[in-house]
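Quick start: read one record
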Amino acid sequence: MSQDSLVDFIASVSGDAHLAVEENLGSGYVRLRTAEAERRQAKHDIRCVEDIVIEMLRNARDANARNIYVASTKEGDMRTLVLIDDGDGVPADMHDAIFEPRVTSKLETMVMDTWGVHGRGMALYSIRANADCAKVVSSDSGLGSSFLVNVDTSKLTERSDQSTLPAIERNDNGIYEVASGPHNIARVIAEFSLEEKERLKVFFGSPAEVITTLIEAGSHSLTDSELLFCDDIEKLPVFTRPCMAEDATRLAEICASIGLPISTRTAHRILTGKIKMADCLLDLLLKKHRRRARQTKADIYTDSRGLTISHEDLDRFSRSMENAFQNIAERYYLQLADEPKIRVGKDAITVTFSIEKDL
């Protein structure tokens, strides 16, 4: 019996552990089968949720997307990411195959960028190997894509501070770079957006905010004829479909079909203009940078006793106040009309919320 036949026989009678081994080299050494080596490499490629985000962004970029919409939510330990793009799309018969190892559309090219080599056909395989769920929700050739990824953060970690936005500054050469902030999802998106600023934009927010943005983008992308007479929205680009909803019930149905399930009440709030659009993250950060640059004093607020609070800390505090406000916003049908205003006085720090009441 040949050695290969012997290995196959042992694998067939000895359980899954032996399926990993192609050859026993002796002295405790073995040669792994290709599939097992790929599985282990895939586990190593993705070490945190932020790694998944950057791989998905690179994937959309390489599919020639000009706009990428990232919706992020977390319930308990479960992080849910939905990425929708206006790129080339994935043929219907390839929706599952693209998650297999070595499957790639880059037959003659690969991409070397800030994050390493891309084009080995391993990125999506690595994501699925580390996530609880990774799938194409909706896509076809020429229609862009919607990808859904669910991650149990008790198994695959993420940065504990996901609410703080990074800050952008000019370096000594006058080039914008991400200067501070935790290495969270927002920072990964900001770094990618800076690297690819000439090619694409990335919008980042909650599912409801992303849907609001998609409605706006779709209404400007489709022709009047498509808006009025399209009888099958699945023939339209994925990102344009929410704008075809005639009422809240239909909007909720369409959004569920592209990986963004919402309640009918939330759909109604979107259609009545109660939900703001997701930010183009790079534009938002550049706006904040320019606002800081216009300050005539140093980057501090000072009261008569010398109390100093940096703008970075004030921004972080404002963000946390905005998050805290959401605890009562849903219960009392309120929403913020603007960012919380923070004033540092001699004897107090005052936070003001400008609110709007839902009808």
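The first strand starts at residue 21 and ends at 26.
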